[in-house]
């Protein structure tokens, strides 16, 4: 005897058996200003996400005034994700820094981290400073007036030094710092910046400046004390300096969202950037160091990972090598 299945029952069965092909909601990534490094990064992330979802997922980039504005847009619902410096992420989550006096934003979640804003110490190639120890007793330019570089201060703490160990911390306009270095007015210039960097390139060309290798326990101490910091490598090849790599540390550009963003969107974003890390590297010289290891690293995110991103990485899905990344 033939069994009969009512048409309505058959449709219901098929609906359960066949995965939904509904398109995910469109997403907006806040990127900072057009002239910044985050803008081309956000555009490439969008392209890779739409490729990963076979065109079903739609992604657009919103130009903003920077990391603080990005966080405000996330909080207000004006963006779904944002590329934010990790120290700003930590400040927003804990109501410190630029967010002192505001409500904490504990819903912030990190998806992945990208290029670093790296502590960089410039010295004259033929000057008296050849290593970190040589900075003792020397004058160091540490930033614009009223805005000393915080990472340099944390590096001094990691060394166990105080300001008195130097010959003076000098705050001066950035435009005057290379001239002061070349003339011997200061023995070093400390700045935190992504690379390649126009200011650094100018210093290297103007008076044969070079950069110090900061390797040593001071980096470990600074990173251990500040969850928004991560170890970083400064590749001299981006300035035509061969393959030599210097050790330092810094903050990171982090793709952040909130805990409520759909798990599938987060997974597809992370899968897209890890599987196609080579495409990211080709998009901008500042992204040359991005690979599976750096994109998967938990260091310097400034906030907990989104649960879907954590699950994806813990399941071993971020195997860029196996997927041609």
CATH architecture of the largest domain: 3-Layer(aba) Sandwich
Mean pLDDT: 90
Distance between the termini: 56 Å
Order of helices and strands: HEHEHEHEEEHEHEHEHEEHHHH
Count of DSSP-assigned helices: 12
Uncertain runs = 1-5, 9-20, 318-325
CATH superfamily caption of the largest domain: Periplasmic binding protein-like II
Shape field: globular
Q: What is the CATH C-level name of the largest domain?
A: Alpha Beta
Number of separate structural domains: 2
> Which percent band covers the strand fraction?
15-25%
TL;DR?
By secondary structure, this protein is an alpha/beta fold. It is built from twelve helices and eleven strands. It has two domains: 25-116 and 253-323, D-Maltodextrin-Binding Protein, domain 2, CATH 3.40.190.10; 117-250, 3-Layer(aba) Sandwich (D-Maltodextrin-Binding Protein, domain 2).
How would you describe this structure to a colleague?
It is a single chain. With 325 residues, the protein is α/β, with parallel strands linked by helices. The protein has 2 domains: 25-116 and 253-323, 3-Layer(aba) Sandwich (D-Maltodextrin-Binding Protein, domain 2), CATH 3.40.190; 117-250, Periplasmic binding protein-like II (D-Maltodextrin-Binding Protein, domain 2), CATH 3.40.190.10. It is 36% helix and 22% strand. It is built from 12 helices and 11 strands. Strands 1, 2, 3, 4, 5, 6, 7, 8, 9, 10 and 11 form an 11-stranded mixed sheet that branches. Helix 2 (38-52) packs across helix 9, helix 5 crosses helix 8 and helix 9 crosses helix 12 (307-314). The longest helix is centred in the N-terminal third of the chain and has 15 residues, at 38-52.
């Amino acid at each position: 005897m033939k069994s009969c299945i009512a048409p309505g029952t058959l449709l219901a069965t098929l609906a359960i058996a066949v995965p939904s092909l509904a398109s995910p909601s469109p997403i907006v990534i806040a990127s900072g200003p057009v002239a910044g490094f985050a803008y081309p990064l956000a555009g490439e992330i969008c392209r890779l996400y739409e490729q990963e979802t076979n065109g079903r997922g739609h992604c657009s980039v919103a130009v903003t005034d920077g990391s603080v504005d990005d966080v405000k847009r996330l909080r207000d619902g004006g963006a779904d994700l944002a590329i934010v410096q990790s120290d700003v992420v930590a400040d927003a989550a804990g109501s410190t820094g630029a967010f002192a006096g505001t409500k904490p934003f504990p819903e912030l979640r990190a998806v992945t981290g990208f290029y670093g804003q790296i502590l960089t110490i410039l010295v004259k190639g033929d000057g008296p400073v050849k290593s970190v120890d040589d900075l003792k007793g020397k004058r160091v330019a540490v930033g614009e007036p009223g805005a000393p570089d915080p990472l340099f201060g944390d590096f001094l703490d990691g060394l166990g030094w105080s300001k008195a160990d130097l010959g003076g911390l000098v705050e001066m306009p950035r435009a005057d710092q290379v001239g002061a270095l070349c003339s011997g007015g200061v023995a070093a210039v400390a700045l935190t910046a992504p690379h390649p960097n126009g200011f650094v390139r100018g210093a290297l060309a103007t008076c044969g400046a070079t950069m110090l290798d900061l390797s040593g326990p001071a980096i470990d101490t600074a990173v251990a004390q500040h969850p928004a910091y991560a170890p970083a490598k400064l590749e001299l090849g981006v300035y035509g300096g061969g393959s030599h790599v210097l050790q330092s540390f810094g903050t990171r550009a982090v793709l952040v969202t909130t805990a409520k963003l759909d798990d599938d969107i987060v997974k597809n974003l992370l899968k897209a950037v890890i599987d196609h890390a080579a495409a990211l590297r080709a998009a901008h010289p500042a992204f040359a160091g991005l690979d599976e290891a750096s994109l998967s690293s938990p260091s310097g995110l400034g906030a907990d990972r989104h649960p879907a991103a954590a699950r994806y990485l813990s399941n071993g899905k971020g195997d860029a090598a196996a997927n041609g990344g």
